[in-house]
Amino acid sequence: MSEACRCWSHSPSCLRASSLRSRLRSALAPGTWRASGSKQRYVPRSRKRRFFAISKRTRTLVFTDLDGTLLDQNSYSWVGASQALEQLRRQKIPLIFCTSKTRTEVKAIRRAIGNTHPFIVENGGAIIIPAGYFPDVAPFGAKAKAFTMIIGRPYQELVRELRRLAQDTGIAVRGFHQMSDQELARETGLTMREAHMARQRETGEPFLFRDATPAEIRTFSRKAQARGYSVLRGGRFWHFSGGCDKGLALSVLIGFFRTAWQTRIVTVALGDSGNDLPMFRLVDRPILIPKADGSFASEVIQAMPRIRRAKNAGPQGWAAAVLDALRPRGHARKVRQARPSHSEVEQDALTPV
């Protein structure tokens, strides 16, 4: 394999070298490792969100979802985002993809856009760090190969548990493992090649409910949570995962950047769906992108009613929001946000769009 692969969400034996585990722990500050029996989990420290201006004394990280955010929800194009992408390059600000897409899909998008930074796939299930990206941070080094950190549960386990949960609840679902490339292409508008890449799952299973009511969806989600798994709503699909989310993956990656840079870091995150909520809660400047119809993800609005909201959907709205977030400000200030409408608050957070 051309990439080193380490899995740390299941047992200490998954990291073969104890010295590697020790170095990883020190690199992931701020945060703690908590042991429970034979399992260990990294837990980031909670903190209040800070609002401060970006200046020469700080460095910036920008995290972004892809579908419906940087990419158009229907065409998957990033036309309209070029100015913001170029501004990030000029200012040497890492743009880190944090998406439900697979490793294979994201690699293709990175090549097309010219992105060379680490990325997070399958809703925080794995972090991929390019070769030599952190030359002064253990356990990487200047000569290190590309490094994959598997945080989520194995794909076959997720498929098995999703099927079992559907059988036990009597609520019908259809996952990617049950779909052919042709069916997925029809469902999403992807090409056959893109649909094939989307099905190369490692740590998460997208799925659809089949004629389920909102009450049944809530029941399904509660039972999944009771078994140690999570059900999150994305743009088109629901996502079944375990032991991970976007927020946990961000906390790990931010820890590496903090160790490498040794300076104050301002974090910005952009997304459009409920599965972006853990990411939004972790960063300094969360920005919610509207759907194509102008509406916003109701579960995000309910949880964070004063979150910054972009004016437009897709790459155009994304670009404007990024450029605004990067604009220097004379002093730290808390930005007033539009209050959610009564109808937005009343929308069922678990009703798919």
Report what the structure shows.
The protein is an alpha/beta fold and 353 residues long. It folds into two domains: 211 residues, Rossmann fold (3-Layer(aba) Sandwich); 87 residues, Threonyl-tRNA Synthetase, Chain A, domain 2, CATH 3.30.980.20. 34% of the residues lie in helices and 19% in strands. The protein is built from twelve helices and 15 strands. It has a five-stranded parallel β-sheet with strand order 5-4-13-14-15, sandwiched between helices. Helix 2 packs parallel to helix 11, helix 4 crosses helix 7 and helix 5 crosses helix 6.
Summarize the structure.
The chain has 353 residues and is an alpha/beta fold. The protein is built from 12 helices and 15 strands.
